[in-house]
Amino acid sequence: MHEMSICESIVQIIEQQAAAQSFSRVSRVWLEIGPLAGVELEALRFSFDVVTRGGVAAGAALEVIELPVTGWCMPCAKSVAVTQRYDPCPDCGSYQIQITGGEELRIKEMEVD
Amino acid sequence: MCTICGCSLGNLKIEGGHGHAHNHDHDHGHDHGHDHDHDHGHAHDHHHHAPDGTHHYGRGPAHAHAPGLSQARMVQIETDIMAKNSEYAQANRQSFNRRGILALNLVSSPGSGKTTLLTATIEALKEELELGVIEGDQQTANDAERIRKTGAPAIQVNTGKGCHLDGHMVGHAFDHLEMAEDGVLFIENVGNLVCPAGFDLGEAHKVVILSVTEGEDKPIKYPDMFHASDVMLLTKTDLLPHLDFDVDKCLDYARRVNPRIKTLMVSAKSGEGMADWLNWIRASRDMFRIGRPAKAAE
Lengths: 113, 298
Prior knowledge:
The complex is a heterodimer of chains A (113) and B (298). Chain A has 113 residues and is an alpha+beta fold. Chain A has helices at residues 3-20, 41-52; strands spanning 26-33, 61-66, 70-73, 78-81, 97-101, 105-112.
């Protein structure tokens, strides 16, 4: 449900950038999103189309760069690959894992005219 | 347009505020003083600081960055989409800090007994601590009224179509809350185990409330929320004899998702476990107040 408000934020950032860097149209936007950002991509795409209507990003293509989840296993004292928050360490089986990546939610760059 | 809450739809209402939330398009920037400046900084700085070491100066034709690119230029901004909410949350945090107020963000699914627990908590603490409540619900001021009956000041925020409170709403509500310094502010979030996890309100701690009438696997079904919380309160424990709820399993799941989480078992009805919860609040408030910036610094 909050994808709509995230898109409102994206549009606001784009509009501020448009004013600051003098461009009038955005044709493509790249987002970096981690699987743990709590964002449903389909809902985000739908909301993006709706929210951008009539603004500088109207009709812009949305490109999503999906980032991996990474964690730090405390018993092993090393970085390990996990897919979700309650995954055990693939090596030692411990649940003492601190998530170090995968919560990202940011606009990386835009193609503008 | 309000950034985070999507309240351009005109449904946000904050009690005691300017009850015409629809046109607050106009007010935002001015009221708070904490949302200017920032984005300009970004515009200038970020070109130079791409993490992969590439440099983009934003002007002129783009480099071969995206296939088929010709006239268009690339603007690299690397901006956190939640930055706006984080700014509001940070401003709230500073204002809580200045006034010595410990803010707790209470999150749970609807019907977990948050308001009942909160009224019992207020009844128990109101003689010794200054208390205040910000109530978030989609509609109605029922909960704030329940809280006010205890004598504590409360402000209702109706999020309208929104599924969570955000930093901006809480900042507004706090401005209208007539709460004494050096107290404890409870922010009762919208009943929802998903979205509020991602929205910092400036609180010192998120406290997730799970009632034993729900499934014991909620911590792994809704891991983001349990991960984001510092404390889990397992409530309605007076009902345990009538249920198949597996407490150990539930606590185990919660620790899998968040190895640091503290777990407390309480029943607002029988009073069981309430002493621990109240002690946690007292201790957190004491810890919070130690070393906070002196008032003179303001």
